[in-house]
Every structure is written in C-alpha cells, then in structure tokens.
C-alpha cells in the first residue's frame, strides 16, 4: 500500500493565518488585555511599586555583604568593635524580611489580578458565545468553541501561575544588576557587562527558532490527538473491521512526527541553557581575572569583588529560567489572540436600537413572511421571495424535498437568521424590532437535537421557564404524557440525566423536550424534524403529546413522517423555496395528481 | 472533558475491580517504579547523563574554591603569575561545566522523547485491544488526557525531575560537608536551616495537592458547562436562556476563582518562605563569619567562598519543592497509565479457524448483560435462540431497548455472551481467532463511524486490498455515488479533519464498507434509518443482490426494510418470541403490529 498521507487530499485548512490577520489579532489581543486590566490600574501601580521594593531588597543583600567585608571587618581587627558589622547584619535582616513580606504581597496581588482577569475573560467569552448568531456557531463548530473556553483558558492560567512572576523577576533583576554593577565599580562593571550583546544574540536566536519549532510541535500533537480520538470514538468499527494494525501504523507515524518535533524544540533548549551558562561562567572568570588584578593593585576592595561575583550569579539564573516558561508565554499569547478573535465577532442577529414591546400578555401569534429572500451562499438563493401568512392558532406542516427551504423558514421564524430581503413579522411586528427576551418568550423552536443538560429531569423541564414551581413542572410533564415514565425512574423527577440523556430512549428524551416547550408556553412553536429519529412506538407516544402541545398556539411543523404531518390544519408543499401546494391534508390527498398525494401514496406503500 | 461532580452516583460501583474512569487511582511510587521497563533501553544514556550532571555540579562547586585561593593567595600576596593561573583555571572550569550541562541534555533528550512516544504507542495499541465494554465506560476525552497530559508529566519527571532529585540531594550533602569542613560553626548553621525547609516543603506539598485537586475538579465542572452551552447552543438560543446559562457559568467560574486564589495564597506563602531561609542564613554567616575573619580564625577568601557556596544552595533547595510536586504528579500519571495497561482485554481470540465457511449463524440459549449493569436490572437477552442458515436473511424487530443492538454486537464479539453461545458453522465464536471471526462478519452500524482518511480507504476498511471495480460495485449497492462528486473523488479526505457528510451519506458509506468486506455474515444495524424514502428504495433494490447469497441479520424499524428478509424474528423480553413471515406476524401478533405500524387503521388496510 502506498504511503497513507499521500492519497489523502482535501484536508481542511488549519487555523494558520496570514501576516495581516496576525498583526490585527496581535493588536486586538493587546487591546483586550488592556481592557481587562483597566479595573486594576491603581492596583497595578501598587504591585509595580511592591515588586521594585522586593527586588531592591533582594539586590541590596550582596551590596551589604560587600559593606560588611570592607567596612565591618577592619574595625574588629583593629579595635574589636563589631558595631559596624552589627549594623550591616541588622540591615541584611531588614532587607530579608522586607523581601519576604513584599514577595508574598506581590505573589498574592499579582495572583489576584491574574485570576480576576481570567475570571472576567471566561465570563465575557461565555456570554459572547451565547450572543453570537447560530450562523457563527454552525461554522465555528462546538469543538472549537469548547477548546477556546477550556484548553486556551488553561494555557493562560498556566502562564499566570508560573510565567508572569518569572518574567517580571528576570527583567527587574537584569536592570537592577546592571545598575548596581556600574555603581559598585564602573570599570569592572563595564567589563562584566561585555556579556550583554552575546546574551542578546543568543536569546534572540532562541526566541525566533523556538517559536517555529514550537508551532510544529503543536501541529504534530494535533495530528496525534485527532487520530487517537477518532480511533477511540469509533473503536466499534475499528475492531469489527480489523483495523487495529493499520491504525497502529498510522499512529506510529504521527506519534513519531510529534516525537521528532518535540526533540527538535527541546534541542534548542539544549543549546540555549548551556550557552547562557557558558556566557555566565566566562563573565565570572573574566571578572575574577580583571577584578583580581584591580584588587591586587588596590583599586577595588575584596568586598567589591565578592559583591560582583554574587551579583553575576543572580544575573544569569533568571535568564536560564526564561527558556522554561517561554513556551508557556508563547502559547498563552496565541490563546489570547484566538479568544480576542472570537470576542471581536459581532453578533449577526443584533438587538434592536429601538425595540417594540410585545406587552406582558401572551401575544396572539400570527406569523407573516413578506417577500422574504434568503441565501446561505451568494448567488444561490434558498428562498427567492416568499410570502406567507399563518393565522394565530393554526398548525402548519411544511413538506418538501431536501433543499426545498423548510428548515430555512423555521430558522428565519425563530430568528436564527435574518432574511436578506423582506421581513418576518409576528403579530405585525418585524422580528428585528423585538427584544431578544420578548422574541424568545413568544417563539420557541424544538429540533431533533432535544439536548438534555446534566442535572435532574425536573431541571431540564424547568429550562423552559426557570421560575416554574415543582407542580407546574409536573403538570407540564403530565400534559405531554411524560409523567408516567418519569415517575417510573429510580428517583422520579430528581433522576439525574448525563449529558447524552443517559438511559432515556430517544422518545423519552423527546417527551422531556416537549414538556420543556409546553412549560415555556410560547405563542408560536416550531418543530423542525422533531420526531424523525423516533421508532414507531415512540412516535405514537409523541404523537399524542403533540396534540396537547400544539393546541391553542400557532405552530409550524417540519417532518418527513407523514403521520406527524396528518395532525396539521394546513399543509404547505415547498419546492425550491416556493409554495407549490397549500391546503388541508385531506384536500391535498384528495387532489390525486398532487405532489402531496404522491408522497402520501409512497408512505402508505412503505408501511406495507 | 470529564466532570466528576456531575456524574450520577451508582450504588454498585464498589463491586468493580476494573478501573473507574471517575475516580483517579492513588499516586504511588510503585507505579513510577514500574516504568523502568520503558527506561531500561535507555539505561546507559540515563546513567551517563546522571554522571554528567554530577560532574557539572562538582565543577560548579570548585569555582568558589578557586575564588578562595585567588583572594587568599595572589590578591593578598600581590602575586600576578598565580592570579593569571587561577583566573584561567576558573574560566576553564566554567567552560567545562557548560560543556557537561550541554552533554547531559543532549544525550538524554532523545531518550526521554523515545520513552514518551513508546508509552503512547503501547497505550494506543492496548486501548485498541480493549473491548467495547471498556470503551462504553470511558469517554475518549478521559483516555486522551492519559496519552497527552499524563505522559507529559512522566516525561518531565524522567527527563528532569528524577535526575535532579538525585543530583540536588547530592549537591546539598556535598556542599554542607564542604561548609562544615571549611568552618564547622557556620556549616552547622547552614545544615540547620535545611530542617525547616524540608519540613515546610512536605506540609506545603500536602496542602498544595489538596487545593490543586479541587481546582482541577472545578475546572472540570466549568468545562461541562462550557461543553453543554456549546453543544446545546440551539436549545439555549431557542428558549432565550443565554442569560440563565451565563448566570450558572458565573457561579461556577466564581467558585473556581476563589479556589484559585486559595492556591495562590498557599504557594505565595511557601515561595516567599523559601526565599527567606537562605537570606537568613546569610545574616548569620555574615555575623559569625565576619567576626571570625576579624578575629583571624577565618580568611577573607574562605568567607567569600563560603557565602558563594551557600548561595549556590538556594536553587537546588527551591527547586526541590517543584521536583517533589513533579514526582507526585508523575506518580499519579503513571498510576493512571498503568490502570490501562493492567486492564486485561476481556475478549481474546481462540485458536480455531473455519476452513470452508458457509455462514451458518446460530444463537443458542444466549443470555447477555452489560458488564456494568445494575445487578437488580434484568439481563438484556435471556435465553435467546435463533438459527440463520447459510444464505438466509433474517430481520430482527423489537422495541427500543429490547437488545437488538446487543444481539448484533455479539456476532463479531464486540461483546461476549454472559451464558449460552453464538456459533458460526457450528464453532463457538469464542473459539475462533479474532481476525478470522471478524473477517467472516461485517457490520454496518446505526451510527456510522468515518475516519480522517480518503473516502476510498474508509470504504475499504475491512478489505484494504479491494480492487477499484469491487469498490465501485460496493458504492453502487449502497447508492453512495455522491463520493465521485467530492472535490477529489474517492481520494477526498473525509471524517473529522476532512469533508463533512450528512447523516444519510455517512450511513451509505458505512453500508458500502460492510458490503465490500464480502463477509459470510452481514449484520446491518438499522443502517437505512437516515435515508429518505426514495433512496432507501434504491438501496434495498441493490441490496437484494448481495443478500441472495450472504447470511444476514438486519435490525429494522420500518416495514420496507423488513421486506428484504426471508423471515422475521420478533425480539421481546430478551427472547425471540416469534419467527415467521412479515404478513403472518402482522396478521397474528399484536406486539409486532404495534412496532411496525403507526396506526391500526393503516395496518388493517395493508394486510
């Protein structure tokens, strides 16, 4: 067999972005960061002051050692007077305690700021995803939405926990030490600082090379993860079709790519860390030689030399740590960029500037489509211009082949999308002029997804109206005929359902979804293929519930089971976005040459 | 994403000897020790890098001694020649140290990534072997965290933690001994300061582990909410509950925030303490040491060397806490990894092969219950008998939850019977080798699984060596001609990382896959449910040709599918209660009628 990767084409585009977009994303994420930090502005100055004090206290210690050696020891030798030495030791003690206190304050305050920023970022992102249009969600996919809010947030958190402290310390140490070395002795200081250009070169090389290598490791691990998740998700097919060996080959290849990429990235650190160490040791050696010469000549004291050696040690250690958290830092900024990209998305279905209120009473629920046009892709209209009125209280069934525009109409009525021309009206008000709250109270769509949230059955029904009392929840369940099976569950209404609905059958899940809609009591109910995944006994169960749910409200039903369509007051047969037949089910069946009559015959045959 | 807090508690979970995905195994050094099999091939390299680390540390310790000589010798005496020699010696030692650090990292780098990838490869292989019963219990996300996060923790410990645990302890001992040797009263001070550090590190680690676990749990809760809000987005939108969901999220995020602050507090206290101890030691050393120099008991050089050496302990001591936390993590991680290695595949193949298979499938007194089923619940299948003679097609009809899918899974041994047996040509399927059995049987599942590879490779999953003509025929039977219209035809990559297909298209590919495998026994588990009436009719027409000479079991919900079969078996209460012709069952068995007709009047009209 040929190499597996060569005969695959059409791999979806990764999340790689071009230069222009990258620049924009970087700007946006900086702006976002600034915005998130704004409430902490005064606290940030305080933290900065504290961290400066902390570093000053830390850097003072070698200097005090120098004073101790140079000025504290001679008086002892000469007169036995330890006064100066004691004073110096007291100063070291003060510096130490100051450092401990300020360090703890710094860690706690920066931790508070960091976690606060993260909390706000989480909240904003969650709410923003909630406000973005269904069109955005369709394209963005739930997988990516989840990873933005879990793994990307985790990455930022890791950066806050480990990287931030190190970065600040490294920078301040670098600056502080440079100044102090020059203050201690200009000549020797300048010699010591000869190392700076080499450090800069090495660090810059590492920064550039590792960002390339690091990207490669992310790409390769993504390949490993996809193969892994697919295999385990489809292990049934893997085993049934003896796919194990071939999978193992594919996985070995992806795994090896990842190993190689990791190794390559790691080898950069293998050069970088000893490189820093080498520069550090050479600097110490040169300072020792030159400083020793100066000391020998009596131009510097032994204390200065000792202080130099201590400072240089402090100087290089944080430099080496930079390589440890550099990747953390880099992936955190990549994560922030992706999140800021999401936050920059405008909700396509926006709230009105000048909303029309619907009043507190339930609106009658007359629906109208007036010259509605819609296209998912430019130039391929799904609805070329549709006019339709559904009187309040009527049950309308939409019938037609795939692509006839049934689901599009449902989505326009629920304002998951806005029409590109024309308008959708509810009791005379354009949906775009309604507040989200009024719209959702009046129009509810139920699809075959009938997603159940983790929590109890009762929680799931109450989702339709969070302030409903227990008996109202049960009344809703009774009305749709779900009460019986719920009570038979181990803990009745308090039975917890996992995210997939646990052991509830598809029909039972659908009944819970209907109870939820019934409790919400909207004026308009839209059912999009809500019954299509059910087997016949479940469908029969739901069929009875449907009559209750639909009574007294306007409803639009899409179903390919004609048994569901039969309960409608009116059937619309759609083709290419136009209504080709319109009448009661009985009338349409009676019209022998009609499309609906055809469908009805085919359906009867399939039951035979 | 796992969310331990949201899982319903099952009363019988303590009876399990198998690992529970929701309960992490305890961390133990034993689990870590078991990794040695993976380290063994790299033993030479690991030992070499340990030696290199020891040498590098030794070199770094000699530099302060050179400094001492330099201060006490040439600087005190004004001897330029010796100054040059000692200075160059210091430089030489420094270069050597860097060289050994480089060497250590270089030699071990290949080894640690090899260990990681070997572990990952073996985990993957083992997971592929483990039966459905295992996979039904574990979400792929939980397994994924084992091959990513856990292996990273192990790699970090193997590459860094383990070596520096040894090296740092060695360094601590050596330096302390050196300090004691240089001037024992001061050495004692330094040694004494190690006691509170070690004691506190232990306590810190305990508190830190607890709070970290809590943070992880709360992150899991938050992840569940995120997942639900993303997957259930349309429901939330439809009911206008975005604000309600966001309020719930805010509460969980707040809880996480508070716990994270607790974590920050604990570690802030610890890290600032660790920073203070060595500085306090400097205070004492300066106080006593300078006095000793003043009184002539100690030289200048020794004092400087002493302080330099002592400060060289700061890093290893601080890092010790990190390494201990790393070790803890690696222990948990390896326990989690070995949990999977220790799970023996419950379904292993026999040794027999059927020489000339004809495809005679029999279920004899089959009882089946899911391994994790509640003991109070009745078995799914109880005493099921069914005989499918070679070439015959049997439709299985039953209510939701009656065990139809379980029945189909028993044939290729995705699950094993609890008692009774399933035979092919008279041989118990458990006596057959797995590859042989699974080449005799092909299944098209209700929920088709497609992989990220070409359409062709997806179809040819069970028979990679199929010719183009055979593939084309299978596509024909399954009415999956749409694949030719994909951007790159059969080469188009589909599945998770490629083109996405509709439910009906996926089902047709899965059907083509099962047909192409040319099995002796074909199992179709409600494979046509997502097709529209028109396409379904075309598929059924084509399927008849295949079914005429293949033994087949078809799970069906619709009368039209049932009509493909030579006979129908009604599955009720875990047994086959009726076997016969569709029309007869429709006429005489009310339970059957209830399953296949939506209204009694229609049933009357059609029979």
How is the topology of this model organized?
The complex is a heterodimer of chains A (608) and B (607).
Chain A lengths: L18 H19 L3 H39 L3 H49 L2 H7 L1 H8 L1 H34 L1 H7 L2 H39 L1 H6 L3 H53 L5 H42 L23 E8 L8 E8 L4 E6 L5 H8 L7 E6 L2 E2 L5 H7 E5 L7 E2 H6 L7 H10 L3 H6 L7 E2 L8 H15 L3 E5 L7 H15 L3 E5 L3 H4 L4 E6 L2 E6 L1 H6 L4 H13 L1
Parallel strand pairs in A: 3-10, 3-11, 6-9, 9-10
Antiparallel strand pairs in A: 1-2, 1-4, 4-5, 7-8, 11-12
Helix pairs in contact in A: 1-11, 2-3, 2-6, 2-11, 3-6, 5-6, 6-7, 6-11, 8-10, 8-11, 10-11, 15-17, 17-18
Chain B lengths: L28 H5 L2 H4 L3 H35 L2 H50 L2 H6 L2 H43 L1 H48 L1 H6 L3 H53 L5 H12 L2 H29 L18 E8 L12 E8 L4 E6 L5 H7 L8 E6 L2 E2 L5 H7 E4 L8 E2 H5 L8 H10 L15 E2 L8 H14 L4 E5 L7 H15 L3 E5 L3 H4 L4 E6 L2 E6 L1 H7 L1 H7 L3 H7 L1
Parallel strand pairs in B: 3-10, 3-11, 6-9, 9-10
Antiparallel strand pairs in B: 1-2, 1-4, 4-5, 7-8, 11-12
Helix pairs in contact in B: 3-4, 3-6, 3-10, 4-6, 6-7, 6-10, 6-11, 7-9, 7-11, 9-10, 15-16, 19-20
Radius of gyration of chain B: 35 Å
Q: State the domain count of chain B.
A: 3
Q: Please count the helical segments of chain B.
A: 21
Helix count of chain A?
21
CATH class of the largest domain in chain A: Mainly Alpha
Spatial strand arrangement across the major sheet of chain B: 6-9-10-3-11-12
The CATH superfamily of the largest domain in chain A is known as ABC transporter type 1, transmembrane domain
Roughly how much helix do the residues of chain B carry, as a percent range?
55-70%
Largest sheet properties of chain B: 6 strands, mixed
Largest interface by Cβ-Cβ < 8 Å: A-B, 173 and 175 residues
Describe this structure in words.
The complex is a heterodimer of chains A (608) and B (607). Chain A is of the alpha/beta class and 608 residues long. Helix content of chain A is 65%, strand content 10%. Chain A is built from 21 helices and twelve strands. In chain A, the strands form three sheets. Chain A has a six-stranded mixed beta sheet with strand order 6-9-10-3-11-12, with helices on both faces. Chain A has a four-stranded antiparallel beta sheet with strand order 2-1-4-5, with helices on one face. Chain A has a two-stranded antiparallel sheet with strand order 7-8. In chain A, β4 and β5 form a beta hairpin. The longest helix of chain A has 53 residues, at 244-296. Chain B is α/β, with parallel strands linked by helices and 607 residues long. Chain B has three domains: 25-183 and 325-346, ABC transporter transmembrane region fold (Up-down Bundle); 184-297; 361-444 and 519-606, 3-Layer(aba) Sandwich (Rossmann fold), CATH 3.40.50. The radius of gyration of chain B is 35 Å and the shape is elongated. Classes of the chains: A alpha/beta (608), B alpha/beta (607). Chains A and B meet through α2, α3, α5, α6 and α8 of A and α3, α4, α6, α7 and α8 of B.
